[in-house]
Design a protein that fits this description.
The protein is mainly α and about 400 residues long. The chain contains 10 helices and 2 strands; from the N terminus they run H-H-H-E-H-H-E-H-H-H-H-H. Among the domains are: about 160 residues; about 90 residues, no CATH class. Helix content is about 75%, strand content about 5%.
Length: about 400
């Protein structure tokens, strides 16, 4: 593209062309880059907000699942398993334990607690003394018969024989007088049955406690099964919110990627380069509006300035020129009006004042025209530039 400007001053024309080129550079290159950078920043903010929303939704879902995990993870299956355990305890374990206890109780009624054994008890001490006395009597009898050579008819031998007989009779009598003693021995079979019955009763008690626990668990699981549909619906709602947030994040990240790619493409574009094709030269023909235009503008500005000055002078004159105005200001009825009687001198003074006023208005209009012409065709000044921008 080509940028050209015509002005009376070459320096001003060069400056205007440079300004226009810089403005075009900014509007055609830098402004789109800045606008795209703003879009990238906005997309980054939107993507960050979407990630924050996604993290919040995911945290809420995780906390909800953790708190209600028992309700969400198959309470129906756990209830079914608990009921199977209850059925097994009632029909198998408890029934078998009760039957075993009844069988053991019947066996205990038939089995004695102790085994009684009867034995004969002799006076072993007396028997030992008698045997000792018999052996001593036999020894004395032998001494009498062998060593002392006494005959059977000898009185000492007969006496010893009599004592020996008596001792033997006494021994036979003591042996025949034995007493019967009963010995009670614990029945090991009875003891084992009692132990088996106690162990079975303990097993039965444990089974019943377990049954009570399972009944309580069954009631809790029934409540979980009742609440499970609502809780699962809430979980599905939270999961849907997480999925929607994830989709939003994906969309925002895709939009951010596209915006970044567009910004990179703008940065990659070759910047605009301007070069001077024709150096600034003084114009060959006069520039600016024609004489007729300047005259018309001066006339309009002079008329406007003159009207303004006339209005200001009239506003500073506080004289009354209308009798009704006097009555309106004073608030009194007017009885009569006397005209102004001027002398010749006063008439001349009044005419001179009017001429001065007219000359002042014409002078101000002429000054305005001169200033306008100087601003348009004088040296380059800010006023000149302003006026030139205002004129076609």
């Amino acid at each position: 593209m080509t940028i050209a400007h015509t002005a009376r001053d070459p320096i001003t024309a060069a400056r205007v062309v440079q300004t226009l080129a810089a403005d075009y550079q900014e509007s055609a290159v830098q402004r789109p880059i800045d606008a795209q950078a703003d879009i990238v920043a906005t997309q980054e903010s939107l993507a960050a907000d979407a990630c924050t929303v996604l993290a919040a939704c995911q945290d809420e879902l995780d906390r909800y699942v953790q708190v209600n995990q028992d309700y969400l993870e198959g309470p129906e299956d756990r209830l079914r398993a608990v009921r199977e355990q209850i059925d097994g305890l009632e029909r198998v374990d408890i029934a078998s334990y009760e039957g075993e206890i009844s069988r053991l109780a019947e066996m205990l009624t038939e089995e004695p607690e102790f085994i009684v054994e009867e034995t004969e008890v002799h006076d072993e001490g007396r028997i030992a003394d008698l045997r000792k006395a018999i052996r001593s009597a036999e020894a004395e009898l032998t001494v009498l018969q062998i060593e002392q050579k006494r005959t059977d008819a000898h009185p000492a031998v007969v006496a010893k024989r009599k004592i020996l007989m008596d001792l033997r009779d006494e021994l036979t009598r003591v042996r025949s007088e034995a007493t019967t003693r009963k010995v009670e021995t614990p029945n090991e079979m009875y003891a084992s049955l009692v132990k088996a019955k106690i162990d079975t009763e303990a097993d039965l008690a444990r089974a019943r406690r377990k049954l009570t626990f399972l009944r309580t668990t069954e009631a809790e699981l029934l409540e979980e099964v009742r609440r499970a549909p609502d809780l699962r619906s809430e979980r599905d709602r939270l999961a849907a919110a997480v999925a929607a947030a994830q989709e939003t994040v994906n969309e925002q990240e895709a939009a951010l990627s596209d915006a970044q790619a567009a910004l990179d493409a703008l940065h990659a574009e070759r910047p605009l380069e301007f070069e001077t094709l024709t150096p600034p030269t003084p114009p060959r023909n006069p520039a600016g509006p024609g004489t007729l235009m300047i005259a018309a503008i001066g006339l309009l500005l002079g008329a406007a300035v003159g009207a303004g000055l006339a209005y200001a002078a009239d506003a500073r004159d506080h004289s009354f020129r209308d009798p009704t105005r006097v009555a309106a200001v004073l608030g009194l009825p007017m009885l009569g009006a006397v005209g102004v009687i001027r002398t010749r001198t006063e008439e001349r003074q009044l005419a001179a004042a009017r001429r001065r006023k007219t000359h002042f208005v014409i002078g101000m209009a002429a000054a305005a025209c001169v200033l306008l012409g100087f601003a348009m065709y004088g040296n380059a000044t800010p006023i000149q530039e302003m006026v030139r921008t205002m004129l076609p």
